[in-house]
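Here we describe the complex-level prediction in full. Unlike the single-chain runs in Section 2.1, the two entities below were treated as one system.
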Amino acid sequence: QSALTQPPSASGSPGQSVTISCTGTSSDVGGYNYVSWYQQHPGKAPKLMIYEVTKRPSGVPDRFSGSKSGNTASLTVSGLQAEDEADYYCSSYAGGNYVFGTGTKVTVL
Amino acid sequence: QVQLVQSGAEVKKPGASVKVSCKASGYSFTGYYIQWVRQAPGQGLEWMGRIDPHSDGAKYAQKFQGRVTMTRDTSISTAYMELSRLTSDDTAVYYCARDRQVSMDVWGKGTTVTVSS
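The structure predicted for the assembly as a whole is:
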C-alpha cells in the first residue's frame, strides 16, 4: 500500500485560505468515504480535524472543511490563523488497512 | 475524560524486541478498536495495524507481518504492541489511537523507541 500523495508545503497569510490535496487510488480514497485529516504540531500527537471526508469532530473550528472528488480528497483551512501552522496528514481506509498521506507543512506567513 | 496513556521511552539494541503499552480510560475499552501508528524522526505517519479489544482479533500492515504482535488485557483496559527483530529503522515515536467511525479520534502522547547498539 503506497502512501497517499500530498504537496510538501502550503502557505497563506492570516485571514486567507489554503487548500491541501490528498491523492490516492480507487482502492483507498476513491473507494470509500472514509478520509480523515490530522493536524500535528511539533513534538505533539496528531489531532483529528476531519473524518468521513467532510465531518468535523466537536471542538474543531468550522474554518476547517473537507471534500472529495474521485481519487483526490482536499482539506481547506479558511481564515488562516497563526495556530493553524502545523503539519497536516490525510488518511484513508483501504479495505481493512489504513494508509496515510505524505504530509503537508502549512506555514502562516 | 477519554484518554490513552502510553508507557515510557525505551532504548533497545538491534535484534531485540520492544513492547509498548496503551492504557485506556474514560470509555468502554472493548467498544472501539485500538490503532497503532509510528513516526520516524522527521518523517510522516505510518499505520502499523489495529486490534479489536472485544474479540482480540488483530490486523497488521503487510510491512510488519511476522514481526509485530498486538494484544490486549481487558481486565486493565490496556492494549500492547510488540515489535521484534528491531533495527535502526525502527527508531520512531509509536502512537496508539482509538478508532471511532473509521478515524482516530483520541491519541496517546506517544512512546519513543530508540534502537542503537
